[in-house]
Amino acid sequence: xxxxxxxxxILTVMLILLLSCFKGGGINFNSxxxxxxxxxxxxxxxxxxxxxxxxxxxxxNNQSEYxxxxxxxxxxxxxxxxxxxxxxxxxxxxISSTGQTLWKKLGSIGYQAYSFIQMDDGYYYGSGAAxxxxxxxxxxxxLDQNGNTVNILYFEPAGSVTILPLDSGxxxxxxxxxxxxxxxxxxxxxxxxxxxxxxxxxxxxxxxFASNVLPFKDNNINYVFIAYxxxxxxxxxxxxxxxxDTGTFAIFKDIYNLPSFSYDFECLSPAVSNDxxxxxxxxxxxxxxxxxxxxxxxxxxxxxxxxxxxNSLFDIKLIPTPDGxxxxxxxxxxxxxxxxxxxxxxxxxxxxxxxxxxxxIPVSGGFIFAGFLGGYPYDAVVMSLDSLLxxxxxxxIVDTNDIYNFHFSQDLNNLSFxxxxxxxVYSNIITNLQNANTSTTDANLxxxxxxxxxx
Length: 455
Prior knowledge:
This protein is mainly β. It has strands spanning 55-58, 65-72, 78-84, 89-95, 101-106, 112-118, 124-132, 135-143, 149-156, 161-167, 170-175, 178-183, 194-202, 205-206, 213-218, 221-227, 233-238, 250-256, 263-270, 279-285, 290-296, 302-309, 315-320, 326-332, 335-341, 347-353, 356-363, 366-373, 379-386, 398-399, 407-411, 416-417, 423-427, 431-436, 441-442, 446-448.
């Protein structure tokens, strides 16, 4: 099977990308939290899973905090980002692999962070929504390893901003319905960082990318897969060049022969190396509460899939695991169902965890989840399950009773894609770029590592 390699976006010596494990956009975080030491923010520790779980962050003034993203660092730590409602600010936190809080910062840019990643220059990059002089903006913030601001780039339109590593010194960014390629080599300089930005009008409807963006490398070509959040359309964009030909560099297709109408894309995932697919797409039918997981190759040809049924609607995420499986997280209200699937999408195990999962990564020996605890006001939480979906401590956070009745329904073997859809490209969407370097400040958060009996 041809191996599709992801460009190493962290320095090779970090040993965080075991390229033999995943295809395309697959990221192997397996060795992160077992790495030791590192500079800039404290020791990464030596444990397999974070030792103190769950770890809850909250304020005492009846305000909510929550995490939107979790990402591992080269020194064995964990980056967390989200919202701090006590002052309507973006929240950035770094903890070690032993659960020690290394720093907790407010971005001083308001009002929420959606992504937080480390790039191969060693710096951390956060993104989100901001308020600048009373006006809504989007932002990318560059932080050093101690959580201090290096630079901030503001821009319009304002909205939900997701950033993902694309190539060395480059990120791909989704801002509402706009796809953006950003260069980090100029230190987020407002006049040089944005390489291109596009909206795609496909069959007279704008794409709503949300989190449905997946970088993928095929030899020397950088692709980005994007899925229509309100429909069953998926596209592939060639993101290799900083000045691509907007008339020829994209394809878009619709999935046919789904069991019923009204399926919407929820997320995209890279395939593991022992899978016949290159990418997987997860779609949800809001009418009959079914979930379709579709396997596709890099040319958007289906190679199979399965349909699952439940009694609820979910916010859905799917990630590959280092040992050739998939973890499906289904969040509904203040509980989340986590389902471990083999490479054939057969259910291995499933558990209810008593939190709203916003983000999850695989690590050595298990998984790290980030999100919040309800009810209101929300408390931000990061926690772990082992490879069998059991908590190392605090059994009260897990329930084996599947209250959502999630189960396999049928194989999807006769799916097909439409021929390439017509599309129109609109460029120069990102406007009013502005630099700033407002300093981060320490976040006033109380930490709770006790094993609560009621969630």
